[in-house]
Amino acid sequence: MRTAPTILHLDMDAFFASVEQASKPSLRGKAVVVGGLGPRGVVATCSYEARVFGVHSAMPMGQARRLAPHAAYLVPRFELYRSISEQVMRLLRELSPLVEPLSLDEAFVDLEAGQAARDADSARLAGVKLRADIRTVTGLTGSVGLAASKMLAKIASEEAKPDGLVLIPPGTERAMLEPMTVRTLPGVGPATGDHLRRAGITTVGEIAEAGEDELVRLLGKAHGHALYAMALARDERPVVAERETKSVSVEDTYDVDIHDRVRVGVEVGRLADRCVRRLRASGLSGRTIVLKVRRYDFSTLTRSETLRGPTDDPAVVREAAARLLDSVDTTGGVRLLGVGVSGLADYTQEDLFAQAAGDVSEEPAEEPEAGPVEEQAPSPAERRWPAGHDVRHAELGHGWVQGSGLGRVTVRFETPYSEVGRVRTFPVDDPELAPADPLPLVSPVVRRPGGEPVGPSGGGGSARRVAG
Ligand SMILES: [Mg+2]
């Protein structure tokens, strides 16, 4: 392992929600929840103000609404998030050729490979400058972790959140990890966490104390070895620039082997849904569906199927996983099941629109009473107004959809550079109203030859400009 804290992990703070707050002045400092608004939707990201109420990523949207009924609920605008992500990733690539994106808003950077840093002082400087540059270019905050390994850099950025920087000085890693919960370590989910707890192990220090043999006995060879090494802060994984090999997967180990074929099918469906939630939370989609089955005798099979195009549709992933299960003999019992999606791609624009429109159409944002959810297909006009998306009114200018339903659409007229704007309601087929492209979060200052810098047109109120 290297001796200098020159691996950087960047994680943007509440990324999707922060983008929405930056583009909508009326939502700054407010609880904002971004995700699928349909009956089966989940939270993709929520603002820190919403987290106070207990809302978190991957939570079913219905539960979020009960916890934070007054929050703003918005349909994701992945096209915008992706363009901002590209700005951030460009800044990272200026630091090093070795940038490993984990999602739209998260990446590892090997500062040493880019000669951006060689010791703790230069690494800290690079991190401080990066955070300032991100703020200037995007108007958003990101948290930075610096350490001598990927695992520790990620733990450091988590500690730094929100809007901070944490550097773990080499030599202090083990002392820092010791009191932390086992769940801090990568690969320790609820199942492994429970398993360890039953063996009396709750902290990272207790893993180290238990020793390697005990860990292997508890968790099997591969997982046991890996976890023991991580507990000692040993992590040699390099920062890898390409992402083609990346996949999102989830798996569960069962305390008692499952024999019932129907139950196996139910579990696979559940894992497929969980996998899709993680995929969506990262703003990704993938083409290859993978099923993993470990049988009673520890023989492990994987089966995969490659689709024609990338998907993040839970029904598609569930069906593919069920087809794959059909080809596996589970009569002796199953001790582990997993579902993964690989061949990841960012959302294409077309997918996004279809998905966003589909999500919002299932539940008008201004449902009058807590009656049954309207399952009827909405009119094409209602499909055009997903909550949170931009619109332009012929007379009143740029705004965003605050809600729609019952043949009406409510628009708040404001831009990223304006004061909090006013709200107006229109018939959904008002000819003066049209969907619009998002505006950049930071006012692009246009210099006309020999003239004064001018902000973008279309915004009411005063322009908020960022120097440079
Ligand atoms: Mg983040």
TrEMBL record:
<dbReference type="InterPro" id="IPR017961">
    <property type="entry name" value="DNA_pol_Y-fam_little_finger"/>
</dbReference>
<dbReference type="Pfam" id="PF00817">
    <property type="entry name" value="IMS"/>
</dbReference>
<comment type="subunit">
    <text>Monomer.</text>
</comment>
<keyword id="KW-0963">Cytoplasm</keyword>
<feature type="binding site">
    <location>
        <position position="11"/>
    </location>
    <ligand>
        <name>Mg(2+)</name>
    </ligand>
</feature>
<dbReference type="Pfam" id="PF11799">
    <property type="entry name" value="IMS_C"/>
</dbReference>
<dbReference type="InterPro" id="IPR001126">
    <property type="entry name" value="UmuC"/>
</dbReference>
<dbReference type="InterPro" id="IPR050116">
    <property type="entry name" value="DNA_polymerase-Y"/>
</dbReference>
<dbReference type="GO" id="GO:0006281">
    <property type="term" value="P:DNA repair"/>
</dbReference>
<dbReference type="GO" id="GO:0042276">
    <property type="term" value="P:error-prone translesion synthesis"/>
</dbReference>
<feature type="domain" description="UmuC">
    <location>
        <begin position="7"/>
        <end position="189"/>
    </location>
</feature>
<dbReference type="GO" id="GO:0005829">
    <property type="term" value="C:cytosol"/>
</dbReference>
<feature type="compositionally biased region" description="Low complexity">
    <location>
        <begin position="433"/>
        <end position="448"/>
    </location>
</feature>
<dbReference type="GO" id="GO:0003887">
    <property type="term" value="F:DNA-directed DNA polymerase activity"/>
</dbReference>
<dbReference type="InterPro" id="IPR036775">
    <property type="entry name" value="DNA_pol_Y-fam_lit_finger_sf"/>
</dbReference>
<keyword id="KW-0235">DNA replication</keyword>
<keyword id="KW-0234">DNA repair</keyword>
<comment type="similarity">
    <text>Belongs to the DNA polymerase type-Y family.</text>
</comment>
<keyword id="KW-0808">Transferase</keyword>
<keyword id="KW-0548">Nucleotidyltransferase</keyword>
<feature type="region of interest" description="Disordered">
    <location>
        <begin position="429"/>
        <end position="468"/>
    </location>
</feature>
<dbReference type="InterPro" id="IPR043502">
    <property type="entry name" value="DNA/RNA_pol_sf"/>
</dbReference>
<feature type="binding site">
    <location>
        <position position="105"/>
    </location>
    <ligand>
        <name>Mg(2+)</name>
    </ligand>
</feature>
<dbReference type="GO" id="GO:0009432">
    <property type="term" value="P:SOS response"/>
</dbReference>
<keyword id="KW-0238">DNA-binding</keyword>
<dbReference type="GO" id="GO:0003684">
    <property type="term" value="F:damaged DNA binding"/>
</dbReference>
<dbReference type="GO" id="GO:0006261">
    <property type="term" value="P:DNA-templated DNA replication"/>
</dbReference>
<feature type="compositionally biased region" description="Acidic residues">
    <location>
        <begin position="360"/>
        <end position="369"/>
    </location>
</feature>
<feature type="compositionally biased region" description="Gly residues">
    <location>
        <begin position="452"/>
        <end position="462"/>
    </location>
</feature>
<protein>
    <recommendedName>
        <fullName>DNA polymerase IV</fullName>
        <ecNumber>2.7.7.7</ecNumber>
    </recommendedName>
</protein>
<keyword id="KW-0227">DNA damage</keyword>
<dbReference type="InterPro" id="IPR053848">
    <property type="entry name" value="IMS_HHH_1"/>
</dbReference>
<feature type="site" description="Substrate discrimination">
    <location>
        <position position="16"/>
    </location>
</feature>
<dbReference type="InterPro" id="IPR043128">
    <property type="entry name" value="Rev_trsase/Diguanyl_cyclase"/>
</dbReference>
<comment type="function">
    <text>Poorly processive, error-prone DNA polymerase involved in untargeted mutagenesis. Copies undamaged DNA at stalled replication forks, which arise in vivo from mismatched or misaligned primer ends. These misaligned primers can be extended by PolIV. Exhibits no 3'-5' exonuclease (proofreading) activity. May be involved in translesional synthesis, in conjunction with the beta clamp from PolIII.</text>
</comment>
<dbReference type="InterPro" id="IPR022880">
    <property type="entry name" value="DNApol_IV"/>
</dbReference>
<dbReference type="GO" id="GO:0000287">
    <property type="term" value="F:magnesium ion binding"/>
</dbReference>
<keyword id="KW-0515">Mutator protein</keyword>
<feature type="region of interest" description="Disordered">
    <location>
        <begin position="358"/>
        <end position="384"/>
    </location>
</feature>
<keyword id="KW-0479">Metal-binding</keyword>
<dbReference type="Pfam" id="PF21999">
    <property type="entry name" value="IMS_HHH_1"/>
</dbReference>
<keyword id="KW-0460">Magnesium</keyword>
